[in-house]
């Protein structure tokens, strides 16, 4: 079991929360692919697009908050006294943080593509299926 008391900084806890929510949103997007059997493809694309956009936002928030915890005593013990918020001192940023930034770009690109596909699917529908007078009540 995960013990949040062992995480050295509240910034690390907050970043972990946002990255965790983003991970669940990405897994949810994959599970939404099963909706293609039951729903209109354009609707599924748009749902997945919003989920990917929310995941990208969560990852971005997590990546921006994470360096705020570099001034914790545990990080100072490992990286030296010159370590402060957003300054790592003797340590370096490694591949996991960089991969998370790439994940942000990936989620943004995928959400953009899903929005484009969703709008194209709407345009491909025959006129019989299109809803006329959206938002207006018929008398």
UniProtKB/TrEMBL annotation:
<protein>
    <submittedName>
        <fullName>LHPL5 protein</fullName>
    </submittedName>
</protein>
<keyword id="KW-0812">Transmembrane</keyword>
<dbReference type="GO" id="GO:0005886">
    <property type="term" value="C:plasma membrane"/>
</dbReference>
<dbReference type="GO" id="GO:0007605">
    <property type="term" value="P:sensory perception of sound"/>
</dbReference>
<keyword id="KW-1133">Transmembrane helix</keyword>
<keyword id="KW-0472">Membrane</keyword>
<feature type="transmembrane region" description="Helical">
    <location>
        <begin position="15"/>
        <end position="38"/>
    </location>
</feature>
<feature type="transmembrane region" description="Helical">
    <location>
        <begin position="95"/>
        <end position="117"/>
    </location>
</feature>
<feature type="transmembrane region" description="Helical">
    <location>
        <begin position="47"/>
        <end position="67"/>
    </location>
</feature>
<dbReference type="InterPro" id="IPR019372">
    <property type="entry name" value="LHFPL"/>
</dbReference>
<dbReference type="Pfam" id="PF10242">
    <property type="entry name" value="L_HMGIC_fpl"/>
</dbReference>
<dbReference type="GO" id="GO:0050974">
    <property type="term" value="P:detection of mechanical stimulus involved in sensory perception"/>
</dbReference>
């Amino acid at each position: 079991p995960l013990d949040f008391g062992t995480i050295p900084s509240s910034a690390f806890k907050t970043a972990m929360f946002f990255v965790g929510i983003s991970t669940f949103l990405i897994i949810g997007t994959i599970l939404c692919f099963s909706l293609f059997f039951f729903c209109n493809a354009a609707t599924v694309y748009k749902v997945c697009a919003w989920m990917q956009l929310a995941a990208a936002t969560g990852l971005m928030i997590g990546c921006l908050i994470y360096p705020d915890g570099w001034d914790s005593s545990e990080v100072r013990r490992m990286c030296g006294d010159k370590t402060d918020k957003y300054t790592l001192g003797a340590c370096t940023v490694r591949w996991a943080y960089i991969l998370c930034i790439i994940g942000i770009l990936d989620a943004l690109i995928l959400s953009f593509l899903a929005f484009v596909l969703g709008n194209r699917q709407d345009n491909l529908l025959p006129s019989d299926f299109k809803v006329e007078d959206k938002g207006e009540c018929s008398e």
